Structures are given as structure tokens and as C-alpha cells.
From TrEMBL:
It is found in: Cell membrane. It is a multi-pass membrane protein. The gene is yeiH_1. Its main location: membrane. It comes from Rhodococcus gordoniae. The lineage of its organism: Bacteria, Bacillati, Actinomycetota, Actinomycetes, Mycobacteriales. Keywords: Cell membrane, Membrane, Transmembrane, Transmembrane helix. The chain crosses the membrane at residues 12-33, 40-61, 73-92, 99-122, 128-149, 156-181, 225-242, 254-275, 287-305, 317-338. The keyword Phosphoprotein does not apply. GO terms for cellular component: plasma membrane. This is Sulfate exporter family transporter. Signal peptide: none annotated. Belongs to the UPF0324 family. It holds the Pfam family Cons_hypoth698.
């Protein structure tokens, strides 16, 4: 007897992944043509433009599964590979004073942002995403925290949009304010690394400052990576708090204390620190990590739709502005305390 199988109704991720990959290619090309532009930031903007271009509902629906996979799974692999750019020796080379400043920025930044968000009346999950995203490493940190708490999709895409807006504004503002304050170029670089949200935004700012003195970009990025190194312990703490609050996810699962991709991040840090990887491997991993994060940023940007943000209100925006200012002030006081002028 001939059995006829009905076609699977399970949505395919292929169309969305292909569009996200194409967006990443365009982002890399645009960043190559535009001096100082970051593929990650360009990808987010392209994603936002694509999502709000008036695509037919059928097309948007076909793209959603793949975009969702890119913004979640590819992002987590990219974050894990980011650990290969971190070596314990680099952090030690900063000096304990600078490393302590980076840690204080993260801890005080999160604490102050949570407190101000509570005063504003922002919900716990939304203010946690903003606090961690703005204090550690932007969209990637927000997505990592999203993996262990019961946040809504709108809260994550709102955080991503705010990271883009306020972090990008910091790119010209930090060199401008540093000049007004008379900061030495290296001190300005340390401030940029300690204050700005995204790694890509720090690179853009450090590149601008590098024109005034050598070594500024390296200092900025190293301090930023010191903040990134705290992503795993912060997410672990958030996971414990979420479990104690009974914040089970809507899919019925209990949030993990430490997600697998963060264990991968720590494993990558250990591999890099052990010195067992050939520099060619590290460079190749950096290329793969950059590609994955760019694809993921396009997908995250594609989640920033007008209808999603319409009901956000002014409170998350006010919290984002306050968090940006708070982290910048803590970072400035910190680098000043190291004797920088």
C-alpha cells in the first residue's frame, strides 16, 4: 500500500538565515567603505530598516524562524568564541588598578541602573536587561541575560535599540568630552573602554583617538574585554536570582544557572590563556566570531519593529540615558583615580 506523507508544516529557518547572512555581507561591505564604521552596528541598522520596510505579512512570517535562530543560537556561539580574544595575561597586564576599575564599572553600573529603574517604575526584567547590557557589553550581554530570565521579546529588542542609539552617540561624545577635560590620549582610551556599551563602539572610538597617540586603541579594547570577562559571573548570579524568584520561562523550563554557551566562553578563555592555540587559529576564530555576531546583530535589528516599540513609553528610554551617564561617570572617576589626566 502506498503511503502519502503530508508535507511538513514545521517552519524552516533557511529563508531567515539567508536574509540575515546577506545583511551581514552588506554590513561588512558598507563598513569597509565607510571610515570608522562597525559591521555590527551597520548590521543592526540594516536589520531595523528591513523590518520596517513594509514587507508583506507572508514574507515577514517566512523570515521569522530563521531570524529568531540567528538572534539566539548564532549569537550565543559568537559570544562563546569571543572568549578566544581574552587571555588572563592580558587582564593581568592591565594592572590591578585598571582591572578593578573595570569591575567597579560593571558592578556599580548594574546596581545603580537597577535602583534607578526601580524608582522609575521599569519592570524587573526590562531594567535588568538594560542594566547588564549598558554595564557589560551591549546587545550580546542583554541577549545572554535574556537566556536566564523570563523576559518578553519586546524587552530584549527595546534594549538592543537603546544600546545602538546611546552607544553610538558615545562614539563622538567621548573624544569631545575628553578633549574638553584635557585628558591624555591613553586616559581617554581607558575611559572609552570602561564607559562605552558595545565592543564595536569602543573600537570605533579608540580608532578615532588613535590618531592622536599610538596604543590608545589597544588600551581601550583591553579594558573593554576586561568588562566582557565579567559576563559569565554576572549571568550566573542573575540565573541564581531568577531561580529564587521563581522566574520559570514561558516554555516551562527553569532558567539555567550558567548557560552552555557561557561555559563555552570560559573554555575559550582557558584555551587562549593556556597558549595552546596557534595565532592562525585565533585569527580564524576572530573572523568566524565577527561573522556570526554580525549575522546575529542583523537578526536582532530585524526584531526592532515600530509596532513592537510603540508601547514602550518613556521610562526605558530615561533609564537608558541615566545608565549611560552613570556608567560614564563611574568610568571617568575610575581612570582619574589611576592618576590619568
Amino acid at each position: 500500500m502506498l503511503t502519502v506523507h503530508a508535507p511538513s508544516s514545521r517552519p524552516t529557518v533557511v529563508p531567515g538565515l539567508l536574509v540575515a547572512a546577506a545583511g551581514a555581507v552588506v554590513a561588512f561591505a558598507a563598513a569597509h567603505l565607510i571610515p570608522g564604521a562597525s559591521p555590527l552596528l551597520v548590521a543592526i541598522v540594516l536589520g531595523v530598516v528591513t523590518a520596517n520596510a513594509g514587507l508583506p505579512a507572508r514574507v515577514a512570517g517566512a523570515l521569522e524562524p530563521g531570524l529568531g535562530a540567528a538572534s539566539k543560537h548564532l549569537l550565543r556561539v559568537g559570544v562563546a568564541l569571543l572568549g578566544l580574544q581574552l587571555a588572563v595575561s592580558d587582564l593581568v597586564g592591565l594592572g590591578w588598578g585598571t582591572a578593578l576599575v573595570a569591575a567597579i564599572v560593571v558592578v556599580a553600573g548594574i546596581g545603580g541602573s537597577l535602583a534607578f529603574g526601580a524608582w522609575l517604575g521599569v519592570g524587573w526584567t526590562q531594567r535588568l536587561l538594560i542594566a547588564c547590557g549598558f554595564s557589560i557589553c551591549g546587545a550580546a550581554a542583554a541577549a545572554a541575560v535574556d537566556g536566564v530570565i523570563d523576559s518578553r521579546k519586546r524587552e530584549l529588542v527595546t534594549t538592543v535599540a537603546l544600546v545602538v542609539v546611546f552607544g553610538t552617540a558615545m562614539i563622538p561624545l567621548v573624544p569631545l568630552v575628553a578633549g574638553m577635560l584635557g585628558l591624555a590620549p591613553e586616559t581617554a582610551g581607558l575611559w572609552a573602554g570602561a564607559a562605552i556599551h558595545e565592543v564595536a563602539q569602543v573600537v570605533a572610538t579608540g580608532t578615532a583617538l588613535e590618531a592622536t597617540a599610538g596604543g590608545v586603541l589597544a588600551a581601550a579594547v583591553t579594558v573593554k574585554l576586561a568588562r566582557v570577562a565579567l559576563l559569565a559571573p554576572v549571568v550566573a548570579v542573575v540565573g541564581v536570582v531568577a531561580r529564587r524568584r521563581g522566574e520559570g520561562r514561558r516554555d516551562g523550563r527553569t532558567p539555567p544557572i550558567v548557560p552552555i554557551f557561557l561555559l563555552g566562553f570560559l573554555a575559550c578563555v582557558a584555551l587562549r590563556s593556556a597558549g595552546v592555540l596557534d595565532p592562525v587559529v585565533v585569527d580564524a576564530a576572530r573572523t568566524v566570531q565577527s561573522a556570526l555576531l554580525t549575522v546575529a546583530m542583523f537578526a536582532l535589528g530585524a526584531g526592532v519593529r515600530r509596532e513592537v516599540l510603540r508601547g514602550v513609553g518613556w521610562r526605558p528610554i530615561a533609564l537608558a540615558a541615566a545608565a549611560t551617564l552613570w556608567v560614564a561617570v563611574i568610568a571617568l572617576v575610575g581612570v582619574w583615580s589611576l592618576g590619568g589626566r
